[in-house]
Amino acid sequence: MAGSKIMGGFLLLLGAFVCYQGLDLTLGTPNRPGPGFVPFGLGMILTTLAAIFLWQNRRRKEERRSAAANYRRTALAVGVLCFYALIVNWVGYLLTTFFSFILWLSLIERKAWIQTAFFACLASVAVYAFNVLFSVQLPAGLLKGILR
Amino acid sequence: MEQISGLLYGFSVALTWSNLLFCFLGALVGTLVGVLPGLGPAATVALLLPLTFKLEPVSAIIMLAGIFYGAMYGGSTTSILLNIPGEAASVVTCIDGYQMARKGRPGPALAIAAIGSFIAGTVGVIGLNFLAPPLADFAVRFGPPEYFTLTLFGLFLAAYLASTSMVKGLIMVCLGLLLDMIGIDPIAGIPRFSFGILPLQEGLDFVPLAMGLFGITEILINTERAMKTELVTSKVGRIWLSMQDWTEAKWAAIRGSVIGFFVGLLPGGGAVIGSMISYAVEKRISKHPEKFGQGAIEGVAGPEAANNSAATGSFIPLLTLGIPGNPTIAMIFAALMIHGVTPGPLLIVEKPEIFWGVVASMYIGNGVLLLLNLPLVGIWVQVLRVPYFILAPFVVLLCIVGVYSTRTNVFDIWVMIAFGIIGYIFRKLAFEPGPLLLAFVLGTISERAFRQSLLMSKGSPLIFFERPVSAALMILLLVLVGTQIIFLLRRKTQSINRFRGGG
Lengths: 148, 503
Prior knowledge:
The complex is a heterodimer. Chain A has helices spanning 3-24, 37-56, 71-91, 93-108, 113-134; strands at residues 28-29, 32-33. Chain A is an all-alpha fold. Chain A has a two-stranded antiparallel sheet with strand order 1-2. Chain A starts with a helix and ends in a 14-residue tail after the last helix. Chain B has helices spanning 2-14, 17-35, 41-48, 57-82, 91-102, 106-139, 144-161, 166-180, 198-201, 206-224, 243-265, 271-285, 298-313, 315-321, 327-338, 347-350, 352-373, 377-384, 388-407, 410-428, 434-456, 463-466, 468-502, and strands at 183-184, 191-192. Chain B has a two-stranded antiparallel sheet. In chain B, helix 6 (106-139) runs antiparallel to helix 17 (352-373). The longest helix of chain B has 35 residues, at 468-502. Chain B is globular. The chains are: A mainly alpha, B mainly alpha. The interface between A and B is large, with 61 and 60 residues.
C-alpha cells in the first residue's frame, strides 16, 4: 500500500481518536468551553483534512523509491540513537559517546578502525569538556566517582 | 528626544569592555550556530542559558540576543552553499540561494544575504528604538479575540505558504496544535493526552521537538543518501554585488526589512513567517516570477532581510509587553526571569540599562555581524568543508547533549528521536514541518485566547467580528480561504474539461 494512503488512513484514525478523547475530556458548552472543546474541534478538522488528502491521493501512483536511497543506513542511524538513549543513564555519557561513535563510524560510515577510534576519543573528550565547562550535569553512570 | 537620550544611555552601557565582549561572543556563536545545520538559535540559547547565570543581566541578554540575530545571519551560508538551512528561518533562502550558487554565483548570493541582513538589522533596531513605546500603547489594548485572530491568521499563512499543498500544511498545523495540547489544560488545569505517562503531563518541550524535526530528520535524510559534504562550489569567489544585482535586490531587501519587522511584532510571528511572507510577496510582485526557484537574487534578499528584522522586531513584544513571540525569544524571556527581571511595559522605566543597553548592543552587533559575514565568510565556508561523516555524528551528539541539558531528562532524548523519525516520514511524503512547529509554539496562546473570547461573549463567535483589529484579520482570513477554495475548484474543473476534451 502506498505511503500517502497509509499516512491518510493514519491521520483519519488519529482525527477520530482525538474526537473521542475530546468527548472524554468533556466538551462543555460554547459559553463555557471545557478542556475537550478545542481538541474535539481539531479532531473534526483533522478528520476532514485527512479525508480530503486521501481523496486527492486516491489515484496518484507513488514514485518508486530512489535508487540512491539506502534505508539500511537510516535504520542503523536510528539504532545508534536509540542505543545512546537506552544506555546513557546506566553507562554514563562518556562511555556511551565513545561506543556510539564507534558504532556510527564503523557500521554506517565504514571507516578504518584507527580513524574510528580517533574520532570516538575526540567526541568523548569534547563532550567531557562541554560537560565541565557548561556544568550540564550529564549522567556519569559507571564512571560516577571518577568524573566530576 | 526621549529615544535619543535613552539610546545614548544605552551606548554607555553597551560600550563597556565586558558588554562589547559578550556582544561579540553572541554574534560569533550565533553565526557558527547558524552555519552548522541541525542546531537552531532556540536550542543554542537553551544550551547556553546556564552559562549566563553568573553574568550581569544586561550582559546575559546582550549575548543571548547576539546569538539570535547572529544565527539569522549565519543560517544563509549553509542554505546557499549546502542547500541545508542552518536554522529554520533560512529554509526559504535555500530555494534561490542554492540555485544561485549552483549557477556559479555564490559570492553575490552570500553578499546580498549579508548586506540584506545588515539593512534589515538596522531597520529593525531603529524600529525597536523609536516605535516600541507607541506600538506598545497600541498592542496593549489587545484582548483575547485579537490574540486568537492573530495566531489563527499566522497559522493559516504558515499552512498557505507550505510549498507542496494547502491540505498538507493545514494537517501539519492541526498536528502541531494537538501536540501542544499534551500536558495540563491551560484553563481547567487537568491533564490531556498524557495517558498516565508522567513526563507527558508536563507537556512536550519545544527543544526536543524542534531538534528532532529539523536536526535529526536532516541527519537521517542525509545518512540515507550517504551524503558527502555537498558544497556546490569549492571557490566562493568575490563576495560582492554587481550594480545590476544591487538594483534588482535593493527594494526586495527594504521590503523584506519592513515585512519582517512588522511580522516580528506579532505574537507567533517570527523570522520563519517573515521570510516566507517576504518570499511570497517578492514572487507575486515580480515581473519575472518564473525566475523564482531558479536563482532570483530578490528571492535571497527579501527573505534574508525579513528574518533579521523579524528577529529584532520580536524583541518589541518581549521588552514592552512581556510576551515572547517565538521560541528563541521565549528562551530570552526565561533568562530575564531567572535574573529577576520581569519584562513588560515598566521595563523601560525600571530597568533602562537593560532595555536601552540591549537596543544599543544591537546597533553594534549588526556591524560586528557584517564584518563576520562579509570579509570572514571564508572561515565559515571552511566550517562547511568538514567531511559530513564527521559532522553528522557530532551534530547528533550536540543535539543529544543539548536536549538532555535543557531538563536533564532522558525522556526528552526519546522524544527527539521519535520526532526525528516522524520528521523523516513527513519529509518522504512531502509534508513541511514548519507549520507544525509554529502551531506547537502558538497552540497554548491560541487556545487560551479562543476559550477566553468565548467566555467573554457568552459563547458567541461573533466576538471575533465585533472588534476592529480581530474583525479585519478575520475578514482577511476568510478572503484568503475563499480565494484558495475558488482556485482549487477552478483547477479541478479545468482538469475535468481537459480530461473530457482529451477523451
